[in-house]
């Protein structure tokens, strides 16, 4: 496989396999593949000159956040020695670049990887230009490889190919005179995504990083359930395969090619027991402090793989989960939005070509805060300024006013104030008889990508909501649909929030004014929705009656585990979700009378 020269040193290169490079860094130190020597043999491996430490830097779920994220999306929680917690402002490409460059100093062997969702669901600065600014920034960050995530498919396969290979946008052309988008100079890996007709991976499944005789293979996958959380058009013609089976397959292939040190970049994650980035999730035993899909994945991936870099859940953890042979293996995630990076040490045995692993935890991996007290990287400041100048005519326009923070993504409650605002905006936009005659509106929580922060992000002034800030909250520009649902179908949809695909991790829809019900978390499955409590404007939902329901095209197509919505009849397509949101802000706020955060009291939660 041909090697690709890297900017950080003449001897550093990446040899790409059958797929585009994959994502974020894993945690390894004393963990090795099946068949690794133990006891005296393992001790012998540490003779001077025999081993070399390789630094693995990783991050995940950047989502085009080049500027510091606003509100709670721009902070991390840290637990202090006395058990108290504090929040630290974090994130922004200017600071991430400085952090990574400082971390690399003094490390002869250093590789940087990412765990997917580098682009997609991005703020206006990147999203307005189809994420070209983010790819340019990642090139400057010297990213070596990333896996694809589900959001890399938001605009479909052809656009993902353009992101990798370059070229101007097919409809909007080139954004800067005399400049053609060069594409990513790092590989995107998509081992478990194949063409439905040919059965072949759409991008390279793996790549091999090489430096002065050291070889480390990277395999990249996204979650098998990507089609459930991306629009049908985005994954058209593609098939997504089991993460474990795919990684095990390509780990064997890499070993046949003589690559024995392997890191898996997996865009699927877990849920630590604490929100603090420095929480020890091995407290009480290896991996005892983490749950979620990544646990079973980690337990079943072949011991040939030495570390797992993960993502998707936007959580922070450096955990140890035993592999199928019972040997500890590091599993890491660096939260999201560039607020953290993970630094992992991989001890490489030059004679065996393998990562040294023992039965002792010993993995040297830690998450580090990308704080905003450090100097900004001048090249990132210049990049952000250049693209901001292009975006300014659109981004800085005021669209509304708020009296305080309106929390959405940053809220831990099932019903959020911003969710209520968005649902009310959708109802208002689609309730006129000539717009759909909607009586109810639902908003999927995953589509709310940020908060509305009272503090000004620029020169607009406190309390001013700009178009750019509204876009950050609703970046997908999904078209709104209005459909007929019977009362029975409507209740089934509510039950699907807490059953079926959503039973383990409930997705609670944000509801418009007038719709109320009780969520009883002392029960299980669909019984958690108290059916006789579901009311519209104080009247019980009639199972036989037909209701007009507004929702975005993604969940109208059954996305996020809501197949009941696919049975809707008499569909009418309306304005985009972003247009509905900005129109509502404009109609219900002014400089003299800003919008107050709603009480978020439509869903009664019983615990």
Structural class: alpha/beta
Total discrete domains: 2
Strand order within the widest beta sheet = 1-2-10-11-13-16-18-17
The number of helical elements comes to: 13
Estimated share of beta-strand residues: 25-35%
CATH superfamily of the largest domain: Metallo-dependent phosphatases
* CA-CA gap between termini: 56 Å
CATH architecture of the largest domain: 4-Layer Sandwich
Shape: globular
Task: Describe this protein's structure.
Strand 10 and strand 11 (214-222) form a beta hairpin. This protein has 607 residues and is of the alpha/beta class. The radius of gyration is 24 Å and the shape is globular. The chain has an 8-stranded mixed sheet, with helices on one face. It is 21% helix and 27% strand. The protein has 2 domains: 51-378, Metallo-dependent phosphatases (Purple Acid Phosphatase, chain A, domain 2, 4-Layer Sandwich); 398-605, Alpha-Beta Complex (5'-nucleotidase,  domain 2).
Secondary-structure topology with pairs:
Elements: E1 3-6, E2 9-16, H1 39-44, E3 51-59, E4 75-79, E5 85-89, H2 93-104, E6 110-114, H3 124-127, H4 132-140, E7 145-147, H5 157-165, E8 188-189, E9 193-195, E10 206-211, E11 214-222, E12 238-240, H6 243-256, E13 262-267, E14 271-272, E15 290-291, H7 293-300, E16 307-310, E17 316-322, E18 328-334, E19 340-349, E20 354-355, E21 365-369, H8 378-395, E22 398-401, H9 417-430, E23 440-443, E24 464-466, H10 467-473, E25 479-486, H11 487-495, E26 510-511, E27 515-520, E28 529-536, E29 539-540, E30 546-552, H12 553-556, E31 569-576, H13 577-587, E32 603-606
Parallel strand pairs: 3-6, 6-7, 7-8, 11-13, 13-16, 16-18, 23-30, 27-32
Antiparallel strand pairs: 1-2, 2-10, 3-19, 4-5, 9-12, 10-11, 14-15, 17-18, 19-20, 19-21, 22-24, 23-26, 25-30, 25-31, 27-28, 28-29
